[in-house]
Amino acid sequence: MNNLLNIKSFLKFLSRNKAYTAIDVFGLSVSLMFVILIAVYTVQELSVDKFHADKDRIYVLCNDRGPTSALPIAYRLQERYPEIEQVCPVITNNVGNQIVKRNEKKLTAKPILVDSCFFNFFSFKLLEGDKNRVLEDRNNIVLSKTFANKLFGTDNPVGQSITIGDSTSYLVSGIVEDIKNSTLPYADIIFRVERAHEYNWSISMDNPGNAGSTVPFLKMKPGADLRPKVPDILSYFKEMFWIYKQGMSKTVTLLPLNELYFSDLNEFGAVNSGNKRFVIVLLSVGILILIFAIFNYINLTVAQAGQRAKEMATRRLLGSSRGELFMRLMVESTLLTVISFGVGWLLAHAAVPFVNNLLQTQVDLGATFTLVWVIAAIALILLIGVLSGLLPAVLISSVKPIDIVRGTFRRQTKMVFSKVFITFQNTITIAMIAAAIVMILQSYHLIGAPLGYHTKNILEVSNGFSNNSDRNAAIDEFGRQSFVKRVGLVAGMPLSGSNNMSSDYEGKFLGFQQFLMDSVAFNMLGYEIIRENHLAEKSWYLTEKAMRDMELPLDAPSFSWNKNATPIAGIVRDFQQGNITDETRPAMLRIDNRSDLYPWSILVEVEGNPYTAYQKIREIYSKASGGLDFEAKFLEEQVQKSFESEIRTTKIVSIFAGIAILISMLGLLAMSTYFIQQRSQEVAIRKVFGSDNRSVLFRLISSFLVYVGFAFIIATPIIWYFMNQWLSDYSYRISLNPLIFIAAGVFCLLISFITVFFQSYKAANANPVNSIANK
After folding, report:
1. CA 342/CA 441 separation, integer angstroms
2. How is the chain split into domains, by residue range?
3. For 714-728, how does the pLDDT look when each residue is reduced to its tens digit (9 = 90+)?
4. Which of 271, 294, 594, 736 lies 20 to 30 Å from 483 when distance is taken between CA atoms?
């Protein structure tokens, strides 16, 4: 009963101090919303591939640049090393999207090609089919749950035939739960690697020519470890694998599956990857916001100490012990945390769609309905309750009734702690504002960097047409639109890459990206020709970098390739392949007749409203292709997407900076209200002795803004150091300008000024008689 009365007493206090309650609950709720979302996201990231039964025995074979190799390599290692129990090569991105047909229905499908042991090797959940036999036949195919529903609706797909392309028939042998929470990407269809050659001529079970076609997974026998034999594997590769024989690759790594997701060895994007640094940044900023809210609670509770101390002193006189008062205050703090956690959990559910879009993932809050999560939530509530309530409980429970009578308690406690907390909050706020500004400027700097070719208003449409007549009809219709300036064809683009043409050139291995296009696309992209030889068609243009790598002068008429003299059509100024952060690579370009070119993409240069143009092009494509999925992006969008990680981090830091500003502003508003109330008698006396309203107003405001100055002095060198470290990862970067930090400080100063101005103005213009009379 006594505990219940205690709770009632605290709730009554909260209802009488609505500003205090609103600010505390808002700050804790918003910060806990972020903590909940970040915790779920972090656990999901850290649990990638943890569901596989044999995860501790699975490794992926990596070279210098990533977890890729030629298709036969895994099988040859299995024959050579008895430590290997099973191998499962997986092709994820070297076979493009396929057109899948069932009767009159056509859909675009994302495939992965796997060994027949795939569902035994990994623990992906089969909804239909026997994992030991589902890929037993080379004509079997497994559909994802989502794709099966799209293609078959309510019909049972198992045992049904589907067609890929124009004529290749497959038998549906199983349905798999959609692949997620894995380094392997989502796939609509899964079939045997033996069929890869039918879709990419360079991939073969016998020929290791395409050295980056496959992700080679190896499963070790129980207790076996192949890693001590890595030097022997390297020696073996130097004898039989051409990329090692020619010095293109120099290292071999057996990477445990548990480490693959956060590994830097993923240059070609063959598997999904995470960014541990991003997760750490997210956790750090989320914890900072939580600390902000806790400090606000401590600050406001200490500011209320005079009012609460009177109550506690009275309870001491009525027989309560200091320990009882201490526990009472700790219970109150925990109760407020429970309320805030409930509100924060509801806010987290409401924010899930926004978070999914921001992080490009699926945050599953349903995972929180487990015993482990409930225990973790209770532990978090108790921790926050203790951290929030400990200092106020110590201060208030230790008050002596005589201090209340004298009025000395406020002077001894409130001002010291509040000044420290306000300075700390402003320090973090200035630092986060400055960090957000630097990140925004760097992101714009990267996106706007010169690439050496045109990107403005150019739409790249993936060529999904199965025959030339449909494609040509679509191209002609594109060209008839008033908003279309020109239409070109390309096989390979600088940002997304192309075929690699490699050879032994005068004793050293050289590799060149090979770009084919028609003359319209060449002019549309605006490659700069610095020397033109006016040769016949089907001659190669070389970039400056290619000429340097071959140690040829720019006026050389030809180059030797595969021991044949090849005429040079001209020299093209170096352009960026990938984004601006990637190194300059050599390239070869050739202009072909449209009739001789098999294009990967159709380039459409538009003018006017790009959104309207996109929709119309989509409509034409859909009609000409018979309803195939439309895959198209403006080149400027692609450039921006290549910096998705940087943009995402910038957005998150900016959001957290905004939340930090809001929490600080609310805390400062409440603190200024209490401070000014405490100083009302001082203000009245100053006015009685001749101070005018303006000088009193200045004195009140400056007493708060001085802490922003202290915070600026503390924050500037700290954030300067950390942002310099962050920028050092980029070869193309901005220089840190002192104006950035001045702007952050001025912005924080302005926010603080606006926050305290109205309360200060009201106090400065109050009638001093009223304040003195009240005292």
Report:
1. 38
2. 1-48+275-406, 95-199, 424-441+643-775, 458-642
3. 999 999 999 999 999
4. 594
